[in-house]
Specification:
The chain has about 425 residues and is mostly helical. It has two domains: about 1-70, Multidrug-efflux Transporter Regulator, Chain: A, Domain 2 (Orthogonal Bundle), CATH 1.10.1660.10; about 100-410 and about 410-414, Orthogonal Bundle (Citrate Synthase, domain 1). The chain has helices spanning about 5, 10-20, 25-30, 50-60, 95-100, 105-115, 125-135, 145-160, 170-185, 205-215, 220-235, 240-250, 255-265, 275-285, 290-300, 320-325, 335-350, 360-370, 375-400; strands at about 10, 40, 45, 80-85, 90, 95. Belongs to the citrate synthase family. This is citrate synthase (unknown stereospecificity). Keywords: Transferase. GO terms for molecular function: citrate synthase activity.
């Protein structure tokens, strides 16, 4: 019978899948001393964290191997929205961490779209909200938060007489209505509401409505700061696959709702937007009493070689600055101390190496659990914040030649 330590390790097939190589190549690494291997009667076993550190080292090398998750990109597009320099994320030249500590998501959205923090956003009407609530109420109970956001984009498109308006103003209006409607609609959707404000069409902030809809804890100012920070820190981060999908829709002159729908389709994937849900599962297993080593091995096995959720990011040498900013706000939340303790246990298990420090996915998982929310709310915050960036990229794409992002296929068949 395998020992507990051995059962928490990975098989050669699992490691090969994680690294994107053949099993024979994996054993070549072992023979060269690049990665350790434990021989057992059941076969070779590998330490999951050593595997993850090795994968991170390979990603940081200048030569990118075909099949790796960090393979050379197919295209490079100009963007003036976000950049990471010296491990700091900047939005339009401003440190994202500073914006997250001092602004609301409404102010930052207005500034990114128009250049003015005080610019007025287009609010959804009561008719818009009523129609969207009915749309979401008809969804199956198992629908995810990103499913609900996709349905919201469709519903708002159906009630907007300017849906087909191919202008930057039309894109901004669509983004505004989506951002401001989501909290109110979620407060009335099946399986989501805890409480709601007096009127779904009131002028309460996005952060306040989200808290009241998703948490059963009384509202405090520091809670609103954490919600706003989560939304602002996720607005943009280079050209993620969801952002590219949105820009492709904009390249074909899709409406703001078409952009949001396309982006959400690419977002709702295990290697992008839903990674925060996996990180939430990992964090909750620690909080339920499972040992960190076993929790890490279990989650890495269940994610089919996709790595350790919530840790590491190729853009940072010394840790994800977005995670650092958001995690600093977690202790002030209702269940903050217990969640911080669980995060610390995971960080200690990961060894604290520069490549395996917490990323934004773990920080979002920590936020939702510290607030008493559901694990599926972590992708919700990510997608809602990122919607601001999707619309900004769509506005930029509208200034480019239409259909420039339609690639030419190269036939390789028989």
């Amino acid at each position: 019978m395998a020992s507990d330590a051995q059962s928490a390790m990975l098989t050669s097939d699992e490691v090969a899948a994680r690294l994107g190589v053949k099993v024979q190549t994996l054993y070549a690494y072992v023979s060269r001393g690049l990665i350790g291997c434990l021989r057992t009667p059941q076969g070779s076993r590998f330490d999951p964290l050593e595997v993850e550190e090795f994968a991170a080292r390979r990603r940081s090398q200048p030569v990118r191997r075909q099949g790796s998750l960090a393979a050379k990109p197919l295209m490079v597009l100009d963007t003036d929205l976000a950049v990471v320099e010296d491990d700091e994320l900047y939005l339009r030249g401003q440190p994202a961490g500073a914006l997250a500590r001092s602004r609301t998501v409404e102010e930052v959205a207005a500034w990114i779209w128009t250049g003015d923090y005080a610019a007025e956003l287009t609010r959804p009407s009561q008719q818009d909200l009523t129609a969207a609530e009915a749309f979401l109420a008809a969804m199956p109970a198992a629908a995810s938060r990103t499913d609900q956001l996709s349905a919201l984009a469709l519903a708002l498109s159906a009630t907007d007489p300017q849906t087909a308006a191919g202008t930057a103003q039309g894109l901004q209006a669509a983004g505004s209505r989506f951002l401001l409607a989501a909290p109110a609609v979620l407060a009335h959707s099946s399986g989501g509401a805890r409480r709601q404000t007096d009127s779904p069409a009131d002028s309460s902030s996005v952060a306040e409505q989200l808290w009241l809809a998703l948490s059963d804890q009384d509202l405090q100012p520091e809670y609103l700061q954490a919600i706003n920070a989560a939304l602002i820190l996720t607005i943009d981060h280079d050209l993620a696959v969801s952002t590219l999908a949105g820009r492709i829709a904009a390249s074909a002159r899709g409406s703001g709702y078409a952009v949001l729908s396309a982006a959400l389709g690419a977002f709702a994937t295990p290697l992008h937007g839903h990674a925060s849900h996996s990180a939430a599962r990992l964090l909750r297993s620690i909080r339920s009493g499972q040992g960190p080593h076993h929790a890490v091995a279990e989650i890495m096995t269940s994610t089919n070689g996709r790595g350790l959720p919530g840790f590491g990011h190729f853009a940072y040498q010394d840790g994800d600055c977005r995670a650092k900013t958001l995690l600093e706000l977690i202790p002030a939340l209702p269940h903050g101390p217990a969640v911080v303790e669980a995060v610390a246990a995971l960080v200690e298990e990961a060894g604290g190496s520069g490549q395996l420090q917490p990323n934004i996915d773990l920080a979002l998982a920590a936020l939702t659990q510290a607030a008493g929310m559901n694990d599926d709310d972590a992708p919700l915050f990510f997608a809602l914040g990122r919607s601001v960036g999707w619309i900004a990229h769509a506005i930029a794409e509208y200034h480019q030649q239409p259909l420039r992002l339609r690639p030419q296929g190269r036939y390789t068949g028989p």
